[in-house]
């Protein structure tokens, strides 16, 4: 799982094949990055926590139905 930075940064052009890059997905069901709450407040952390909980449930459901 890659939460941050986006896969394009982690798997840059020189470090991975196109086939490998296609295997990487962001954790959110809609494939959008999860915000970094580091400089935020409690509500920002709670929002990210909820996003990750929802994403984990979705991932679990997807894996269990394979």
Give the SSE map.
Elements: H1 7-10, H2 18-23, H3 42-64
Q: Any overview of this molecule?
A:
The model has no long low-confidence stretch (mean pLDDT 79). This protein has one domain (7-64). The longest helix is centred in the last third of the chain and has 23 residues, at 42-64. The chain is built from three helices and no strands. The two termini are 18 Å apart. It is mainly alpha-helical and 66 residues long. It is flat and about 40 Å long.
Largest sheet: none
Radius of gyration: 14 Å
Runs in which pLDDT lies below 50 for 5 or more consecutive residues are none
Mean pLDDT: 79
* Total DSSP helices: 3
- What is the string of helix and strand elements? HHH
Oligomerization: single chain
Structural class: mainly alpha
How many E strands?
0
Tell me roughly what share of residues is in helical segments.
Answer: 40-55%
Spatial shape: flat
Can you tell me the number of structural domains? 1
Features:
single chain; Ptyr_pPase; Ptyr_pPase_sf; 3 helices; 66 residues; Phosphotyrosine protein phosphatase I domain-containing protein
In short:
It comes from Planobacterium oryzisoli. The chain is an all-alpha fold and 66 residues long. The protein has helices at 7-10, 18-23, 42-64.
């Amino acid at each position: 799982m890659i939460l941050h930075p986006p896969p394009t940064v982690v798997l840059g052009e020189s470090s991975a094949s196109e086939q490998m890059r296609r295997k990487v997905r962001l954790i959110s069901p809609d494939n959008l990055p999860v915000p970094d709450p580091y400089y935020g407040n409690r509500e920002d952390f709670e929002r990210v926590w909820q996003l990750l909980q929802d994403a984990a449930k979705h991932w679990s459901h997807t894996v269990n139905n394979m």
